[in-house]
Amino acid sequence: MATFEDRLSKFIIIGENVHCSRRVKLDGPRCLKDGGKEYVVWKDKGQPRRMEIPDWFKKDNQHYNSGLVSHCHLAVEYGLRDDPIGAEYIQWVAKRQIEKGGNYLDVNIDEVSPSLEKRLASMDWIIPVTQKAAGKVPLSVDSSNTETIVRGLKAYDYTQSTPMLNSISLERLEVVDICVERKLPAIVMASGAAGMPHSVDERLENLREMIGICRKKGLKDGGLYIDVLIYPKSASAKEGLDGLLAMEAVRKEFGEEVHIAGGHSNFSFGMPLRHLINAVWLDLAIQRGCDSGIVDPITVDPGAVKKLDRSAEYYTRTSEMILNEDDELVMNYLSDARDGNIEDPFEKK
Prior knowledge:
The structure is a single chain. This protein is an alpha/beta fold. It has a domain at about 165-349: TIM Barrel. Helix content is about 45%, strand content about 15%. The protein has 15 helices and 13 strands. The protein has helices spanning about 5-10, 55-60, 60-65, 70-80, 85-100, 115-135, 145-155, 175-180, 200-215, 240-255, 265, 275-285, 300-305, 315-325, 325-340; strands spanning about 10-20, 25, 30-35, 35-45, 45-50, 70, 105-110, 140, 165-170, 185-190, 225, 260, 290-295. The chain has an eight-stranded parallel sheet with strand order 12-11-10-9-8-7-1-13. The chain has a three-stranded antiparallel sheet with strand order 3-4-5, with helices on one face. The longest helix has 19 residues, at about 115-135. The chain is globular and about 50 Å long. The two termini are about 40 Å apart. About 45% of the residues are buried. The mean pLDDT is about 95.
């Protein structure tokens, strides 16, 4: 049986940032106003770079109108217009995650357009662009639409690496056959045929059926990355404990060969002290058998777990908040975190 140290040292990071739903604030450090124009900005090898947010992107864009910009979506739009700034930006996002330890890079273009034709064209463009930056680091081809996934797999250069498929679930069993045919590892969702689970038992019931199908069709346990579904704590005080208990139950029931993953970045969405909360969450998750995750490796760093002091007050209070279902306790923690009354061990002095 793998130890905590084994799982931490070999933790598999599936970087989530090449994703067209990701947004940055227009008034934040990733954007700039200059000469009446607005830009997404970054530094590549110390050199400042910027990508204009043009009027054609702003028009009727609800996210822009609420003060946000979908930066990867913007890059894809430039790419589809044959403007090289789009590829430069996507490749910077990819390389940045690899530098932070990304073992896979998840790629999702679903929010580019409701048009299937445009989504397929976007996959044709983004897969080779991302692979050029990723090198031997494999991609995770991600979409809620099976045809879009198939298009991404067709655009993939298998001489560089073998992709992961994100994802298979009871909602679309036809994707299992794609994994079998191409011998691909896959994210296995705990969702049901009719919707999302909201208890440990519902998650396990769905996974028993789904993993049974995978095994029957010949998929090996070592290629299954089980997503128990991690919901934001900010949505409900109940979230957190159920996810952790589900991980523990999955490890016990399905054995040591399967991987236990999840969207760990989701848990702290909308909360203060995200770096601290993410680190303590990951520590608790690994204790319960988790060995991988779909995460932003910039903000969810397995290495940060090593820096935690489990005897410290900040750890005690953060772990209590994660594990507790009491609304008042959670609200008191958030209030103290915003007021600076909880030590942040990751704060730069």
